[in-house]
Amino acid sequence: MEKIHTHTGVGVPLRRSNVDTDQIIPAVYLKRVTRTGFEDALFAAWRGDPSFVLNQEAYSAGSVLVAGPDFGTGSSREHAVWALKDYGFRVVLSSRFADIFRGNSGKQGLVAGVVSPEDLEILWKILETRPGTEVTVDLEAKTATADDVTVPFQIDDYTRWRLMEGLDDIGLTLQQADKITAFEATREPWRPKTLPARHLPSVEIEAARPV
Amino acid sequence: MAGTLAEKVWEAHLVRRGEGGSPDLLYIDLHLVHEVTSPQAFEGLRLAGRQVRRPDLTIATEDHNTPTLDIDRPIADLTSRTQIDTLRANAKEFGVRLHSLGDADQGIVHQVGPQLGLTMPGLTVVCGDSHTSTHGAFGALAFGIGTSEVEHVLATQTLPLAPFKTMAITVNGTLPAGTTSKDIILAIIAKIGTGGGQGYVLEYRGEAIRALSMEARMTICNMSIEAGARAGMIAPDETTFEYLEGRPHAPEGEDWDAAVEYWRTLRTDDDARFDAEVVLEAADLEPFVTWGTNPGQGLPLSASVPVPADIADEGERETAAKALEYMGLTAGTPLRDIPVDTVFIGSCTNGRIEDLRSVAKVVKGRKKADSLRVLVVPSSARVRLQAEAEGLDVIFKEFGAEWRNAGCSMCLGMNPDQLAPGERSASTSNRNFEGRQGKGGRTHLVSPLVAAATAIRGTLSSVGDLDLPDAIDITTFDGTPLDGVGASPLGESVVDLPIPVAIGSAPSGSAAGQPALR
To answer: What residue stretches are annotated with the Aconitase/3-isopropylmalate dehydratase large subunit alpha/beta/alpha domain (chain B) (predicted)?
Structure first.
């Protein structure tokens, strides 16, 4: 994972709350089996609307999304983060994130910073007044700066450290392999195992037909 | 030290306690896998040269993309077929048990775990699907994870997790006739909002919850995520043990006794403290339906479409106005006057046998309204078999409904079961987001009973709007079959079968115990 200390890019004001992951990327795009190439799917339902913010030239190359509260609610699809990253976003600022989305972001190197509702409004006003304004996000200082305004954002220390070090979660955990093996030795025998497989008797399933 | 149910399960799975702001490392007992959120995780393993650490704690099924018609023919949609084929190839390569389309154990992942007896109290259960909260109905700590986390669990059987807060949701009293656990959870979400549970594990308690069957408890826990909570739990009790005993993977003999003894300790201590508490009176509830485009935008069926101008909060007012525009609704219209085009009965929320029985009770001997279509999609192939053994399929077909094969289906429209633009549904599923059931589709979330009554009348309706014979007891949701209509196929002897995924030398495409797909 790429290390991130600071990022500067065009800020995109998304003045909507409750942007759920079905809006970020509709389910129809989840059928792909690759990890990249989801940029066309981002906000697909809104992209056809010429007035949508990303369809305005000043914002189209944006990389810092400034969104309303409860961003990323709904389905756990990580594709939402991939779509944002594939489009070019590196940072999302909002006054509240859904838990799963925030977790997914940290793992994929997308900064999800929580700003206060008042600061969110200030950032929106700046970005709407002067489209194309760049926002500088400093993970070290936990601040976002647009024009002459600097606002603080929150991000948990562990995620911030991992983002700044570019560390991959699995590698970190596998350093604890001995502890995992020791834990496994203490698991009770009643805990279920999927193998060997047990079932009720197999039965042929009749295919339903169109009526 | 006194603890809540969730804290007890968490503590029992600590591989390592986090220090200096780093998260705890938790062991995962059961990992459920499906075709949509797993391909990139397996790809990650392959790229890093890693194996699946515990294939014996992992199980996969095909559900999101699978068609519900013509399942013995090749999947028409190429990308859907690719996802299914990719899962099959990954399961084979990594030695993961897979229940494929056409297999009697195929179905929605959140039905497959419980029906096989794999979901148990006191487990940690994860799946790359936000409705994994369903399994909390058994007293398991169960939550949805993203694809990176799927890869993490495959590689390590653990997850680094930050601690959560706890919220008690107590539902006192007895549910009125015609209301169900779906109405409880829709009312809870309307009360606390779609973000109200963020950062919390919810524990549902109280007399009304205790009285619910396992199926009804699963409906409630399933929608915890729609209140923003990653997990919802219900302490295990006799209802739980009764559901589990004798299922294929339930413990046996001494293991069963040891398990039950431990499971009885899985309750919140009387002196434990929750970080937040919410109380509802069941007697105040009535059938609930959503009018907007998030699950928190719900109202009792007797209400009218809200008037945005009357909403004080500016943000909520705008959200409501946008929702009404999308939904094609006029403020002030009585909810009961809203005509629907499609009734969808199914999903991991309400596609279980008990849901099908309650719908069958209401529609038996009647005809659906001419103006709409009715889709009945069982949550798993076993549920379909059981319904057929009980004669429910005949009741549905005579009613004019389509009786489909199992899967996620129109809940999210990844397969051909979609709403057309502008089409309106009454759906027993869990999300009414814009475009969820098809681009431009309009969804009203409802209980199975409201779905049944709506299918009869053509507009959003409750069973109270019907002239039901006194003999039909719609208050009974204890999982008992309809009177005199066949026996349940459950209860037969459990057999050990060869692993149904083609591991190693098994012939590809016709793994043991499942018919080959042509």
So the answer is: 7-458
